[in-house]
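Before a colleague's protein record goes any further, I have to sign it off. My question to you is simply how this chain folds and whether the tokens agree. I do not need a full report, just your reasoning and any doubts. This is what I was given:
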Amino acid sequence: MNTDSQNSDIKAWVLLGILSLVWGSSFILIKKGLIDFSSGELATLRIFFAGIVLIPFAIRSIKTVKTGKEWFAIFIVGFVGSLIPSFLFAEAETQLDSGITGAINAITPLNTLIFGALFFNIVVTKRNFIGIAIGFLGTLMLAFSNQTANTFSINYHALYVVAATVLYGLNVNIIKATLQKISAVGVTSLSFFLMLPFTIGYLVLRGDVLNTLEASNSANLSLFYIALLGVLGTAIAMILFNKLVQIKSPVFASSVTYIIPIVAIAWGLIDNEVLGGIQYLGIVVVILGVYIANKKS
């Protein structure tokens, strides 16, 4: 192995570690942001901060979009892949622990496979199908389990997370099918840029951010957590992920899926969240299912 290859491998592992920490920490940041702000305010502020940071990249990428069809696809990517999931995750964590939210999020690759098979002519193998089945079994265990006792009682807010992962899976396939000629950074930055009017409109018409900042001593800290979520956990994380794909491979980059739940659960335990035995088992089953579904022959 030559020096350049070794340096590339080291850089890839460093990026993987940073990305896992950043994305895995997103769920505790959502939880902290919800202390003073509503789920709708948090969701729109998250996308707003990400969109603002990515404006320079968006401006440089405008000329790479050639057709109205591409602009429409980018809009759908922003709406389906970022804006709506942001609302779903924020609402989920009003009643769901951050660690469990992070664990359920791990089924995103399974939904990517399902949508690819249904609508984008991607072949699903027997191994893929078994992995998908196992992954969703683990998700059901998490959605129906009670963390304070090893019993089953459904938490319907887990379905918000499942819905978000479904949209993520659809989003990835839309990008693959319609936006291959535009760089990943271009698609990401332009999609967030197109969502800025919606976030500004929501904050002006329905948000109460300024009054909250005046009324609560802790609101500034909550806003700081949301800013971190938008800038680091959304904008910068996407750039890091795209870079990781470039210097290594999509398969290597997708391994972040297995590490994110570990980081999310660790933050939850630090924040005094409690997990029961059934939930730990459910987390293991989810990760096992994702691994089997994505394992190469």
Q: What stands out?
A: The chain has one domain: 8-294. The two ends are 25 Å apart (CA to CA).
